[in-house]
Amino acid sequence: MSKSPKKKASSSSLVSSSQGQSPKKEASSPLASASEIPGEAKKSLSSFWPEWTDAEVNAEKWDAAKASKDSKLFDDPEGKVELPASLRVHTWKRPSEYIVIKTPVVVENEAAFDLTSANEHLLSSELMRWVISEIYILWKVCNTEKDMPVSTEAVSNHWKPWEHIFSLCKAVKGHMSLYNAYGKYVIKLYWMGSWRKITVDDMLPFDKDNNLLLPATTNQSELWPMLLAKGILKVASTDISVSGSGRELGEFTVIHCLTGWIAEIIPLKSWYTGKIWEFLRGNIAQFQLEEESSEEKTTTADLTTVTDSNVDEIKCESPTAPKSKATGLTPTPQMVVCASYQPLHLLEKRTSVLTKMADSSESLRQVGLSQLYSHPVLLTRTRDCPLVAPPKPPPVPNWKLVRPRKQTNITDEPKETPIQKPEQLIEVSSPFINFRLMTMAAHEMEQGGVRRRGYSSNLTSFSEMDDGEDDHTQNDIIQNSLNTLDATETSQVTAEDKKKDDSIASEGVETSSSPEKETEGTDKQWVQIAKESNSALLQSHDALASEKPLLQETWVDLLNFTKCFQTLLIFHKPNTYAYQCKMSHFKNSISSRLSATALSNAVASTHSVSTPARQPDSTGTIHTQSADHFLFVDNLLPTEIVICFSALVHWGESAEEKRESSTRPGSLTAKPFSWKSIVSELPVVQIQTTASKAALLSLPPGRHVLHMHTRALLAIHLHLCCMSPFVFGDEETVMPHLDKESLRFCEQAVMILRALGRVVGCFSDPEELPLATKDLERTHGVGIQQQRVFNEAVYHMFCSVLGRKLTSEELFAVQTLTGDPSHHCSNDKATDARPVDDTPKGWNGRQATDQEMQAATVLQAGWKGYLVREILTAARPGTKENLTVTKTLQEMWAPVESDIAKHAVFLLRHMVTNGEGIAEVYPCREDECNRITFTDYSVPIPEVANSWILIFREVFHVPKNMLLVPKIFSPLPVCIVHVINNDTLEEIPRVFNRVEPHIYTPNKAGYTFVAEAHSGDTSMIGGKWRMRLIGSREPLPQLARDTPSNNFSVKELKGYYIPNEKNVICRHVVKVSSDHNATVQFQTSKSDVYIKLSILDHEKEIASSQGKGHAIIPVYRFLASNGGSVAQAEARQDQGSLTAEGRVTGGGGGKEGSDQHPTDTLFHKYYVQAEVLQKSWPLDDSLTSFIQKLRDIECNEMKVFGDILEGTSEPVGMDQQNRDSQKSTLKSHKAKEREKDKDKLTKSNSSIDQILDVSKPHWTLRVVSEHSETDSIEVKKDTERLEEIRAMKLAWEAAEPGRAAKAHQTRLRYLKQLQSHTGNTAEGKEPVTAEAGTQSQTQQSGEFSVLSQNFGKNDIDYTPFIRRSLPKPRLKDEVLEEEQRRERSEKFQSFRLIWDNILEQRKQERITRKEMMKRHVETYIGFQDIVDEYRQKMMHAREAFRSRILEEQSHKKKDELPVEPVEQEKVDPTQVQPSGRKSGSKRR
């Protein structure tokens, strides 16, 4: 123990300290500093109990010198300990206040103790009963070797409860704590995976009857039960009982707290009786009869016998442990088995549960237990034989065996053989078996046979309650129970306390009824008697404690066992397991003082896992980076792993806060897992607890990977124990172990290779060779069709072992060994070494004739026959060739034996890879799903805040068909990976933003992996993004370049959203000078907008993507047109647009454009277009003015002659000559201002992008490319339509100067005429003047109002007379006329085609109807023929029957009248024919 601090200091902490405190600073923790302030009030628990270190305890300041002064004594900084609700505290006292005669001590009697006689008033508390029972159980389990020979192992198992208490002593083995007058004690208890240091004071609670409310021994001066119980109550306060159950504790166990043993709780069910019996027989001792032979006694010396009632033979370890040591086998894990039952809960409303409680109560009463006082019991032995051996039958004389008398049954009824029920009993040990009788006997001995009412009340305290009196009855039991310890304590209190108690008692007398007064008077008399006989009582208590056995035993039948007890408590001893692993997570906000030391495991093979904790989310549940853990097991035998899960769900809360809060228990879920599948398996282990709970995980042989997910509010701890090696941790810990072959695979491979080695070893033995060959065939187990694959694997294995090609002798030896002369065993590579010029000159460049092919076939068949004969001769033992082959095989086999495991794996892997269905032959096929290999690719994360970023974009080439799964490790909250097939531009499907496992096939351009993410509010400095490619085996896909790079250039375009009829958000032109890979991303300011992002080539959609608020085309390769620069490409595109100007202006749709511009690799015209789907981007009315302003800006961009019309917009009566004279001056001015307008438009667009208001609906377009290829791509807004309109207007003006001004004046004149007819509409509106040219929007609104008023006045509908117009104006030329003629002809042809189809269809229907009628007639005729045939058959049968009847009648007449003439015997045919005709007509 003294060396443990150094060992712990050198190891890593089980829980990493995020505060960065050193161990020296931790020694002065808040707990330690607060403990030195006695006058401080109760504080809330702000830190966990520190881990135990001997050095810290040895340096503890006990402050015993302060006790001599008049200063205040030590008070627990955590406040008063929380007692169960059934115990009501009246006062708190120090030991020096109620122990006057003797000086208090921590422990006085180390040989034995009695915790039942002096604590009858505490038995109404379930928690106190569990504390007392489990202390008794631990004492019996660990200290039953006292009557056996002393050994080093036995001494190490001794356990003393007072050794958990430290005061004024050093932390060494066998220490003895002293009484500390200052009142400070340290308790060592196991909690949350490690031993903890818990500080308590010596303030003890008392009720109003001056009864101590903590367990105590019969020696009133001993303090260890009270101090130990205070520490246990502190740990138990972290547990929460199930609401509505009426219990005082949940899944907390005292044995786990005192020893660290893992508690597994198994519910008992009656239908599992057989399994329960088998489990108990295999894990606890078995009862043996005394009348056994000497040999049996020697083999079962460790088992218990019935002669000793104390059952001293029950040891701490499992009964199988001594047997394993005697036989030299590996020791099995040790465990202690207990059972418990639930207390009586009368508030239960379910009838079925009440029935079970009644049955359980009756069964418990029969074995001496009470349903009211539930507690755990120890299971010590099982018995399947009688307690006393039946007497042997007297010997039968030999003369009676000569002719034995047969036993006869005197009754007629058959004798039924009575069914003998097998004896299956379990011995249980408990301190409360027949406790009422024991208590009554002890009281009678103390009072000399005189009975008193106080003792008789104890009999009723254990009676079963019939009514629903829960708390009230329990409190009455506490108040009315008086025992000898109460009397002794009353006689030793001070005078002041006595006065206070008397005053309290007198107040109680005044308010009580007369029967209660008489009871109190009687009790005071007996108290006076107890004062006088104090010394005699102390002696009697000591004698009773020394003579009374600690635990009483009784036998319970197996059928009643499942009725009495509801749960099995199995305590596993972790130090008996060969492999262990521990892991803990603590919440940083509470663990202000975390230990800087870790648990040092006693087992050399044990490994610990320590992971740092992270801040939980708003729900309070721990979500750390390593919250999900993985378990890897690979074993040839079934594996059993004990999983202990501890959860902390509340800390520092009062009892009322616990009841009010609805805290979820901690949970653990373990289920099979595979990185190569997205299918979620069913859980194999599920644990929910608020304290500590264990479960046994049983796995079949083979390789298994389990995913464990844990969740708790404040802290969790995991402890795994197993006798076989396993790996537990995060992905980085488990995944490297999955690259190797499984143990079952290796074992199967070694078995096959050893069988092959036996064939090689006895290849010349005629007797052993057939047996070895059959053994080889049975071992590899492949069929005849797959035998060829095995032969190939043997050949390739020898080539791999030798590292070269096989010589001709070695090749012949392998062919003889496998018995396969096929070409797969020939050195096909040797043919490559043959010179090319070896072919005769005459055969170069000519085809073989049929005769030559036939001759070559004959030669090949002859050579194969010769080779087969040679192989058969060499395979026959005893021949000369066989000896030569045997020698060659043995020489080749020598290097195989040097590393047989490696070559065996190569052999079997070659068989499984190249043979279809071979993997299904072997049981190791189930392990293939967990075999993986992986490689990582990492890049730095760009330091950009609150923005979309492209992290990774690389091309991978797949050499062969393989299953791949990309897994992402990113510190960013949102990261999505896209995988694109570059040949088909299809994206691999994703499930929940994860790429699903997919079988990648080799292609020409490879696969592009693209990763996008959205950075958080703060930039990630120094962050790393990592992608892990997971496959089944090597080789994995290869990167197109040496190292991945994420140096990207982003072209970002922004703009406001303007609603339109086509729902187009934006449209941009992409021009490239060389082939260019780019990623296109589009994002809207509103996150719930459904959008579609498309890439068009000559108005034909070639790539698209849809999304909600965000859409991305992960990668697209823009092909360049002929030329080397963007300017040249633009010139060619402009030229192409001019040559096709007529077609473009009249197109009006993408389909038509695609028809006019077929796909041409020499010229590409790319557009990036974003659209709104389903009208999912509505705008508020408050944005109407803003949208109108944007539309006005677009209208101004479309103006061409705005500067000219400003000067010409004057009254209509102006002279025409003056206007003509102004045309020439305006032409020169027009050309100058045209370039200025373009500059203004570009500047206005750039200014809009720079001052974009993010509060308005806007969009963002990003085109991402490699940084080195930035200059080869250009993205700009699509203004092609505006440029076409501008060019058209300029062409009109050039052909006819002044056309624009003339049209404008005509338009103004027409508007004036309309205004003259509508005088009322002129009011409130400005007349049309020359200034109206600058206010286009006002004029247009005036025009529309005038037109609408005229239409309303005249009531004339001009709609039928208005010719329908195209969406875009188009000049009608020869090309358009040709298109219209072609469209009309196509319509005519389509109509003719439809009409011909209809006529043809009608003709076919007519023919079909005729054929159907013909078939109906034929069917009817067939039916008639069949009916006639059957009718004829019936007639023939009828006539035959009639003739036979007539013959029989004629024969009878002949016999009766032999003398009559023959003419009378014949039947007149005329009498028969009419009946036949009549029947025939009737049939018709």
Written account of the structure:
The chain is of the alpha+beta class. Helices cover 39% and strands 18% of the residues. The protein is built from 43 helices and 41 strands. The strands form ten sheets. Strands 6, 7, 8, 9, 10, 11 and 12 form a seven-stranded mixed β-sheet that branches. Strand 27 and strand 28 form a beta hairpin. It is extended. The chain starts with a helix and ends with a helix. The relative contact order is 0.05.
Write the layout of secondary structure elements.
Blueprint lengths: L3 H7 L12 H5 L2 H6 L18 H5 L32 E3 L1 H4 L27 H17 L9 H5 L8 E2 L17 E8 L2 E8 L2 E3 L17 H13 L17 H6 L2 E6 L5 H11 L1 E2 L7 H6 L20 H8 L7 E6 L10 H16 L10 E7 L41 E6 L4 H12 L6 H9 L9 H10 L3 H8 L3 H17 L2 H19 L1 H14 L4 E6 H7 L2 E6 L6 E8 L41 E8 L3 E10 L6 H6 L5 E7 L12 E5 L2 E8 L2 E10 L3 E8 L3 E4 L1 H4 L8 H19 L6 H13 L6 H16 L5 H11 L9 H5 L17 H25 L5 H19 L1 H15 L18 E8 L7 E10 L4 E8 L4 E8 L4 E2 L2 E2 L2 E2 L2 E3 L6 E8 L9 E8 L6 E2 L8 E9 L7 E9 L3 E9 L5 E8 L2 E9 L1 E9 L7 H14 L1 H5 L4 H7 L9 E7 L11 H15 L3 H7 L7 H35 L7 E9 L6 E5 L2 H16 L3 H19 ...
Parallel strand pairs: 7-9
Antiparallel strand pairs: 1-5, 2-3, 3-4, 6-12, 8-9, 8-12, 9-10, 10-11, 13-20, 14-19, 14-21, 15-18, 15-20, 16-17, 16-19, 22-31, 23-30, 23-32, 24-29, 24-31, 25-26, 25-30, 27-28, 33-40, 34-39, 34-41, 35-38, 35-40, 36-37, 36-39
Tally of alpha and pi helices:
43
What is the mean pLDDT?
Answer: 75
The low-confidence runs, each spanning 5 or more residues with pLDDT under 50, are 1-44, 146-156, 292-329, 437-547, 591-626, 825-836, 1124-1161, 1209-1230, 1320-1354, 1462-1484
Q: Which structural category fits the helices and strands?
A: alpha+beta
State the major sheet: 7 strands, mixed
**Rg calculated over all Cα atoms:** 51 Å
- Fraction in helix: 25-40%
Distance between the termini: 120 Å
Strand content: 15-25%
Give the overall shape, derived from the CA principal axes.
extended
- Strand runs, count: 41
